[in-house]
Specification:
Number of strands: 8
Protein name: YcxB-like protein domain-containing protein
Distance between the termini: 35 Å
Order of helices and strands: EHHHEEEEEEHE
Structural class: alpha+beta
Number of domains: 2
Radius of gyration: 23 Å
Strand content: 15-25%
Keywords: Membrane, Transmembrane, Transmembrane helix
Helix content: 40-55%
CATH architecture of the largest domain: Roll
Shape: elongated
Strand order of the largest sheet: 1-2-3-4
CATH topology of the largest domain: PH-domain like
CATH class of the largest domain: Mainly Beta
CATH superfamily of the largest domain: Pleckstrin-homology domain (PH domain)/Phosphotyrosine-binding domain (PTB)
Largest sheet: 4 strands, antiparallel
Organism: Nemorincola caseinilytica
Number of helices: 4
């Protein structure tokens, strides 16, 4: 099967956000950033109550709740902006159309300037997202936009078959959204 596509900046951004959402280190960092300030505020509130300043403690409590609500809204946008900046500086797609042919034991990828033969044994994971299919090899991936593939269902079926035959983990994350 041969497909033709052209990855966009948005596809690269989705790839970065997806793997950031799966990284244990980044999930831990996001969770700690969200709870650090409320914990500090809880200590301040407890101290303020112990001193008998109940009104001030109430103001601090409202401020802590407002922070949690604001941070829940702000944080995904902050990460999106950060990764968009990263994509624009470092991980821009080639802006060249890609032709990819899937054979029984390997895939070939052709652009106007390069040719690559990719053995399926180098694939660490195949991930299906709502709008993309990611063929991950180490820290890099081939991003296939589903909307540019005429028969995405046939491609998905082929990739599931390849994953089964070559013992490659196939991750069905069609419901994934960045939060």
């Amino acid at each position: 099967m041969t497909i033709h596509f052209k990855p966009t900046e948005d596809d690269s951004l989705t790839y970065q956000l997806y793997f950031a959402s799966r990284s244990e280190r980044i999930r831990k960092k996001r969770r700690n950033a969200k709870i650090r300030f409320p914990i500090i505020m809880a200590i301040v509130i407890a101290y303020t109550i112990a001193m008998g300043h109940y009104t001030l403690a109430g103001i601090y409590a409202v401020f802590a709740v407002a922070y949690v609500i604001w941070y829940t809204w702000y944080e995904p946008r902050h990460y999106r902006k950060h990764y968009l900046s990263f994509v624009r500086e470092n991980a821009r797609p080639d802006e060249l159309p890609v032709s990819m042919t899937f054979g029984p034991d390997e895939a070939t990828q052709d652009t106007a300037t390069s040719h690559a033969t990719l053995h399926y044994s180098t694939f660490e994971e195949i991930a299906e997202l709502p709008g993309q299919i990611l063929l991950r090899m180490g820290t890099q991936a081939i991003i296939i936009p589903k909307d540019q593939v005429p028969d995405a269902a046939a491609l998905t079926s082929l990739l599931k078959d390849i994953a089964t035959r070559h013992s490659i983990p196939y991750v069905d994350d069609r419901t994934w959204v960045w939060k």
